[in-house]
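#struct-queue
[09:14] JT: dropping the first one here, sequence first, then the structure tokens:
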Amino acid sequence: MALITISGYPASGKSRRADQLKTYLEQRLKELSYDGPKLKVTVLSDDSLNIKRNVYDDGRQEKPARGTLFAAIQRSIGKDTIVIVDGMNYIKGFRYQMYCVAREHRLRVCTLFVVARPEHCREWDSTRGEGQDSYNPATLENLIMRFEEPSSMVRWDSPLFTVTWEDEIPGDEVWKAITEGLVKPPNAGTSAVAVAPTDALHTLEQTSAAMVSAIMSEQAASQGMGAGVVVTLPLSATLKPKINLPPRNVTLSEMQRLKRQFVTIHKKAITLGTTEKGAVDLSKDKVAEKFVSYLEENLKL
């Protein structure tokens, strides 16, 4: 339904703001005046995913940790969920990734920028309660220095709401953004890509080879008369594609050459992990249908 990204310096009070926002949204959802769909509010953070703060000491550990958070976002988003991502989200490229996922699923988005002075962050991090992780001082300074501030001028941070350590959360504005804001449709860069089934290559090769064998047998039986020959594949009793053969004997070498071309064309799409837009259908029936169309277009009279 919506994705809310919280961004700010480490130890700037983002988790407190996330909890406040979650409480506010849950209260709005319970109001008698609310007549929308039934929704739940989920907060995802390093703490909820058991990601320790020492992973930020080493970029080799930080990258998979960020991947864990991103995977959790992908699992959690949906039409019935408001997802609050409580993290530094200090890399604009990572915020763009989250924006793309949200757009792919037609979710409304907004960003809450929690502003605090570096000296406050250092102080708050040093006074964390017992059992709470704190940042290595050098890591904290490094993260503050590398922080890429959200901007309302870029689409993946917009709409952007800024709250200081002294302000109340802009609950009304966030509520309006996630319930009335513009839902941007997926484009070519964010659309879900149709993935070919795992046995697609085997089905493609096996079905096209069986088609060649069946066509050669039917041609021999019909003595090259062509026109509306019904080919029955041994792979399936229900699979009976009809092909119009030219009024001549089609050689086996010609059929094998066309089969190789057909397989190569479709194999490229499968090995890239994608197929044409729309529903993916590489069943035996569909492969046979495609192969018949290909042959009729390429067999010379």
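[09:21] JT: and here's the second one, same format:
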Amino acid sequence: MEHIIDLQQVSFRRGEQQILKEIDWIIRQGEHWAILGLNGSGKTSLLSIVSAHQFPSEGEVHVLGNRFGETNLPELRKEIGFVSSSLERFSQMFQNDTVERVVVSGKFASFGLYEQPSVEDYRRVDELLQDFRLSYLKGKRVNLLSEGEKRRIMIARALMNRPQMLIMDEPCSGLDILSREQFLHTLSVVTKNGCHVIYVTHHIEEVVEEITHVLLLKEGEIVAAGEKNAVLTDEHLSQAYQVPVRVLWDEGRPYLTVNKMEALKRVEEEKNLKTV
């Protein structure tokens, strides 16, 4: 399978609102992508499609070699892991569970454990906890963990079924800088396990070394897509974020600053246009 994802002329509408417009996007073997864009740029709708939870209004979709309309989407979803800060709303279901029970529940894609795991399943749990340097949490209840530890446990849970693709939707939202860096370090474990990453964020400093490519969206259309060094430029990001910005690279990692003088100039120009 050469293409992990292949979208051809994909559009998505909700009622009269055009959310995605003629998206062409390919993820090849060995590539790991970040998706960037302002709120309302279409990131969530795009994730719903590639995670096999939503059909497009138009266009052709292939995910993990499966063509939408010719495949069983619930079965396809078993090949796709998903981690999001929004999953915190389900955390109450895990509060009284141990770390091992939470991780092993990923095999059954359930919030809570309603089936009997095998001895082999728990061996897999031990492997994941060791890979993520979380073995010290064995036996602990989830309600005793820090937010950063909970997020890393959720990644281990998502990898329980050895998915071919892992989607992360703003997974560092709400984490302090230490917890964020500890979380980002786990991406190397994910990629070494042969899992392809799609990482959605508002913050380009989260585009770490393991991320190879970037898709930049604006109002449902692609501004730029390709290798991260070619996409994360002042010009592309200023266009997508609608404010003049500069990109600074440090040890292979990008950081964003706002060009204050240009931003103020643009604000004044917009004020003058409104008063004319």
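[09:30] RK: nice, looked through the second one.
[09:31] RK: The mean pLDDT is 87.
[09:31] JT: good to know. The chain has ten helices and twelve strands.
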